[in-house]
Amino acid sequence: MAKTGVIYGINGPIVHIKGDVGFEMHEMVYVGKDNLVGEVIGLASDDTIIEVYEETTGMKPGEIVTGTGAPVSVTLAPGILNNIFDGIERPLSEIAKEGGAYIGRGVNVDSLDTQKLWETHMTVKAGDRLYPGSIIAEVPETPAITHKVMLPPDLEGYVIDVAADGRYTINDTILTLQLLDGTEKKLSMTQKWPIRVPRPTAKRYPASVPLITGQRIMDTMFPLAKGGTAAIPGGFGTGKTMSQHQIAKWSDADVIIYIGCGERGNEMTQVLEEFSELIDPKSGNPLMDRTTLIANTSNMPVAAREASLYSGLTLAEYYRDMGYDVAIMADSTSRWAEALRELSGRLEEMPAEEGFPAYLASRLSAFYERAGMMQNLNGTEGSVTIIGAVSPQGGDFSEPVTQNTKRFVRCFWGLDKSLAYARHYPAIQWLTSYSEYLTDLAPWYNDHVNPKFVDYRNRLMYLLNQEAA
Fold this sequence. Notes:
Blueprint (H helix, E strand, L loop, with lengths): L3 E8 L2 E5 L8 E5 L4 E8 L3 E6 L11 E8 L1 E4 L6 E3 L6 H8 L18 E5 L6 E2 L4 E6 L5 E5 L6 E6 L3 E3 L6 E5 L4 E4 L3 E4 L8 E3 L10 H6 L7 E5 L6 H11 L4 E7 L3 H13 L13 E6 L5 H20 L3 E7 L1 H14 L13 H9 L3 E4 L5 E10 L9 H9 L2 E2 L4 H5 L12 E2 L2 H11 L4 H16 L1
Parallel strand pairs: 8-21, 19-24, 19-25, 20-21, 20-22, 22-24
Antiparallel strand pairs: 1-2, 1-6, 2-5, 3-4, 3-6, 4-5, 7-17, 9-11, 9-14, 10-13, 11-12, 13-15, 15-16, 18-23, 23-24, 25-26
Helix pairs in contact: 5-6, 7-8
């Protein structure tokens, strides 16, 4: 029997329930008569606080909140690539079929297509011992990427029965596992994972291989490592979004997760149209075959903006677990921080600098620290590289989001307004930008480019500094 509570207070996207009705922290709930998606963010003996990811206009006290008993999670299975989702992994194409161009309230659609049949090749047989993360099947998800169906990280046991190679939906049973306690469990291609919990890995590697962005100033002067973190701060019109588009198009990452967080809708439209037409130079396939878009644009509910970054990050970790190099474009972390600030204000928390919550720094660090080059549980190696755009108001790099971001990233590509207005793109200001990965990557440059590459780069920087003096 699902637990329920009664609304007694509403403040924008924040809903209060009187008393403790048995919900858990970060539990997903359905709010009101329209079944709006929400998340429990505060528990006290006399008050339960819920963050609603949809517009609360028209809701009133007395309506019922129903718990699901599970945290806010994303669905992980074939069908993620070449798709566009909102901030809580609802496919916009399916929403459009139900309600037209604008997202209605209480829309309930499956995250992934449950009817499509996928050509499935099983990689295990009866009697095999499986460990957490073991690859049990391979599915050609797109012409560019083979989807590797994995055992969930919390399961281990022996294979009792395996489906024959063939065509299956993501919910069909393809394997029966006998767990170590003797119980049997039927498994499909689908698994769920909480967006706020990092997926487990066996080992983290230090930075040693560059992410080739395809942009000469970045790759030569301020390189980024695979599994690294970078920030692109800049004022309005300096080219943050276009720089991320270029990296998404030309970098040597296997999979791109592009998160449009609080940005203009026409920018996401441009990504969709351009990426559909462009051909990936590595594989000759359309660029969208290795790309997933998360769209939570400026006209969508603010609360879901905060969740969209974690949704995209969890999808990235899932493909990393298959052994792929994944690059996340977060555009922009400033809009995400503004969502934190608005929600913090609604919760009547004590504001810190410029009204941002006191926990802004810890939230930023928790986001960027999920990047890394990892050895996965199944023995493969993969990476998640995070490239976050920062939109400081008035181009002021001394504001809190830029300053706190600089603490947690090792690569800083600062964009300059005067260069951008002179049509000098990418408008990276070479005197304020830096990369701390240069020494880590020096051995790779010695082996793959030129033993004197780093010396030449340092001489180039010396000349640029002299010229500016």
